[in-house]
Write a structure and sequence with these properties.
Strand content: 25-35%
Helix content: 10-25%
Number of strands: 21
Shape: globular
Order of helices and strands: HHHEHEEEEEEEEEHEEHHEEEEEEEEEH
Largest sheet: 11 strands, mixed
Oligomer: single chain
Structural class: alpha+beta
């Protein structure tokens, strides 16, 4: 009897199972989730949205048309730029130009060339446009964490800039909004209170952006060159004048691959070359890692790169908050006497975003406008092997590839047991930021 019930139950279940199978959704296809890309359709949409007309600017033309030297907040009133914006020579390192929210539509277009996974581009991205075979680039300051999930590297975007602003933070142009710092209790507050570029709110930026096609990293252009070739194209140690500033600002954000370089084992310590040491990165700014502590002041940490002959140099700039901050630079050793003794044995390429940081903060050793840092040019990698994009590729004298290694605090504690106690290096004062 029981067997008959089982057979009957199975017979009843089979039609139900067949029905459930027939209700399974079909596989998702690309056309179901990604709209068809059509340039003509885009132009029609923009015409409908902008009855007063519109223009899609090339990035350099956008800077020429919308970014002035003084910006909109240069008046000598209480609510002007921070005092370090200029030293009175007509050059403004901090500026903000607002873009009208009404009238003709103002657009820019570019492909995302950065990724924020590794942490070096926190709430920042760079877009790249190729014009006549050459790069044009622009930083974008956006108040959005993990923006790489939405704005993936290689994704081309169109941005409506009306209602936003364009400005410079430490001479680096960026799409932004005006931001006023009124923290009178900040360290060196007299140099920080005032207007400067601020981050575009996430919702505002998402509303202003259209995606063009799908992410395609193969469309990004990398300029592969030696340090000698680089400094034949941009002024190595520029004098501060409007002609040089224009060249520098338009070179900012450039995606480069620097060839035949090595880490020297030195840090840019406020404009001076200082040998890195094997100490806990929490205690010193010159540890032999990519970016040791600044005691949460937050300025980028720089480790010096040079070519084989040692005649040209540039900084490799990283954030103390990036995921590989406490990884050893190539050639660094877990040894106080050999901390950077092997760095020059590792040679290769460093890829990243080119920048030239210039500040008018007073009190630093050699960073004023009239005494420019020896190595203000920097390249900021987007990651290392295993963490983000592997932008640092080096081999030793025998051809062995560099494998990243993280500082081990347990090993360091054991190692230092037999060593005399050393005073930690003083951390730089909070001047730059």
């Amino acid at each position: 009897m029981r067997k008959s019930i089982y057979i009957f139950a199975i017979a009843l279940a089979m039609p139900v199972m067949a029905l459930m199978t027939s209700c399974e959704p079909s596989a998702i296809e690309e056309k179901d989730v990604l709209p068809n890309w059509d340039e003509n359709q885009l132009m029609q949409e923009l015409e409908a949205e902008n009855p007063q007309g519109f223009k899609i600017f090339d990035l350099n033309d956008f800077l020429d048309s919308c970014m002035t030297e003084e910006g909109d907040f240069a008046s000598q009133t209480e609510a002007s730029y921070r005092t370090r914006a200029t030293n009175g020579n007509g050059i403004y390192l901090f500026s903000v130009d607002t873009i009208p929210s009404t009238g003709r539509g103002i657009y820019i277009r570019g492909r995302v060339s950065t990724d924020d996974f590794a942490g070096n581009f926190y709430k920042t991205m760079v877009i790249q446009q190729i014009v006549n075979g050459e790069q044009q680039n622009l930083r974008i300051s956006v108040d959005m964490g993990s923006s790489g999930g939405m704005f993936q590297i290689g994704q081309e975007i169109l941005i409506r800039c009306n209602g936003l602003a364009v400005g410079r933070y430490s001479n680096q142009p960026q799409l932004c909004i005006p931001s006023y710092n009124n923290n009178i209790f900040a360290l060196v507050a007299a140099q920080k209170v005032g207007w400067a570029p601020g981050r575009i709110p996430s919702a505002v930026f998402r509303k202003a952006v259209r995606f063009i096609g799908t992410p395609d990293q193969s469309k990004l252009k990398y300029d592969t060159l030696s340090l000698v070739q680089l400094f034949n194209q941009v002024p190595e140690k520029p004098t501060i004048n409007k002609e040089n500033m224009d060249k520098i600002r338009k070179a900012d954000g450039r995606l480069v691959v620097l060839t035949k370089v090595h880490f020297t084992g030195q840090a840019n310590d406020d404009g001076e070359e200082v040998s890195c040491v094997y100490k806990h990165p929490d205690s010193v700014t010159t540890a032999n890692v990519f970016a040791s502590t600044t005691n949460n002041i937050g300025f980028p940490q720089s480790r010096i790169l040079k070519n084989a002959s040692g005649t040209k140099a540039i900084c490799c700039s990283n954030s103390e908050y990036c995921k590989f901050a406490y990884f050893f630079i190539p050639g660094a050793a877990e040894d106080t006497t050999k901390a950077v003794a092997f760095c020059d044995r590792w040679t290769g390429t460093v890829t990243g975003i080119l920048g030239w940081y210039c500040d008018n903060a007073t009190g630093n050793k050699s960073g004023s406008l009239n005494n420019v840092w020896a190595y203000n040019w920097s390249v900021t990698p987007r990651g290392i092997q295993g963490i983000g994009i592997p932008d640092i590729k080096m081999v030793d004298e025998e051809g062995n590839p560099w494998v990243p290694k993280e500082f081990d605090p347990v090993y360091y504690e054991e190692y230092m047991k037999d060593k005399p106690e050393e005073k930690p290096d003083p951390v730089l004062p909070p001047i730059l930021w």
